[in-house]
Amino acid sequence: MHGLQKKYGIWTATAMVIGIVIGSGVFFKADDVLAASGGRLPIALLAWLIGGAIMVVTAFVFSKIATRIEKVNGVVDYFEEAYGWRAGYLVAWFMTFIYYPTLVAVLAWVSANYTTGLLGLEHGVWLIASIYLVFFFLLNCYSPILAGRWQVSATVIKLIPLGLVAVVGLVTGLLNGQTLSSFTNAAKTVSSGGGLAVATLATAFAYEGWIIATSINAELKDAKRTLPKALFFGSTAVVIIYMLYYLGISGVLSNEQVLAAGNDAPVQVISLIFGRMGGTLLTVFVIISCLGTLNGLIMGASRGMFAIASRGLGPYADFFATIDPKTNSTKNSAILGFILSAFWLLVWYGNFAGWFGKFMDISELPIAFLYVIYISLYVWVMKKFSEAGPITRFGAPLFAGAGSLYIIWGAIQKDMFLHFFVLTLIILSASLPFMHRKKIRVHWHS
After folding, report:
1. pLDDT one-digit tens code per residue, 180-228
2. Which of 370, 440, 430, 432 is nearest to 74 (CA)?
3. Most distant CA pair in the chain: distance in Å?
4. Best exposed site among 210, 256, 361, 415 by fewest CB in 10 Å?
C-alpha cells in the first residue's frame, strides 16, 4: 500500500504550531479584545493570559494523547479512538466542511486587507483574497515540501515585527510613562464591551490553529515524539510572545489610540518610532505573517477529506483517498478544500455586504464548537489514562475543560450564534447518508 511519505520533521511541526497561531489574530484582534474589555488594559491582558493558559494546557493534554496514537489526522484519530469510528467521522466532517475552510477564508481576507493597505488600494480586497486562496492551494497541491519550507520561513520572518513592537514599545513606554498610563486610564470611547468572557473568546481566534499541526501526523518523522514536543513548546512560546507584544503596543499608544487604530495599531507603533518607512516595512512583515498562517491552515484544509476517505468513509472515498504519485499530495482532497474555502469566503463577504442583518463571525464561532469536541476528549483521558499521574490524568483535563466552557459561554453571547449552530447541524446532517464503511486502500493515481 502506498501512503503519505514521512517528509516533515520537528521544525516543520513546531513551525506549524507557532506559524499558524501567530498570524493575523494577534494583529487584528488586539483592538477587539480591548474593546470587549471596556477599554481597560488590565482586563484585556487578563483575557490574553486566560486564553493563552487555556491553549497551553489544552496542547499539553493533546501532547499526551499524541504519544499514544499515530494514524492519519490527529484530532480525528483521537476522537475515533475514544468514541468509535462514527464519532470520529462526524468530527472529521466538521473539520473538513466548517473549521478548516472558515479559518482559511478569514485569513485570506485579512492578508488581502493588509496588502491593499500597503499598496494604497481602496478596492480589490476580495480579488486579492481570492488570488491568495488559489495560489496557496496550488502550492500545497503541487509542491507540499515547498509549502512546508515556506511554513518554517514565514514563521521565522513573522517573529521580527512582533519582536520589534514588543522590545521597542516596552522600553519606550517604560521611559516615557505611557505603559503606566495605559494601565491606569481606561479608554473613554468604550463604556462596556461585553466582559471578560467575550474578551477571552476574541483571543481564542488569535490562539487558535495549533491543533492543525496534528493534520500532518501521518507525514511526521517519529510522530509520537515529534508532535508532543511541537504542541507544548510551540504553544508556550506563543503566549510569551503575545504578552510581550501587547505590552509593547500599550507602551506607545494609549488605549483610545489602539481602539482608533484598529488593525493598523502595530503599523502605527513602528511608524511613530522608526518613521513611515519603518511602518511600511512592518506591513510587509505582517503580510508575510498572515500568509504563513494561511498556508498552514491550507495544509490542514488540503487533507480534510483525505482523513475521511482514507477510512473508507464519505462520498467518493476512492477519489478523495487518492495520493498524487508525482507530488505525494492529497490533491483531490485539496480541490474540495478549495471549493469549501471559497464558499466560506463568500459568506464572509456577505457579512460586510449586509446579507444577514447581523454579523456572523466565522472567525470565532467555529472555534467555540471545536472546544465542545475537546471537552469530550478530556472526559476520555480522565476515564482511560489510568497509568498517568494525577496532573496528566485529572488536573490538566479539568483545567482545560473549564477553560473550554468559558470560551463556549463567550460564544453563546455572540450575534447569530443560534444561526451558526443551526447551520452547523445542517452541515453535519448532510454527512449521515455517507456514514458507512467501504473497503478502500490509499493509493497513488497515475
Report:
1. 999 988 877 766 656 788 888 788 878 876 776 666 555 667 666 777 7
2. 370
3. 69
4. 415
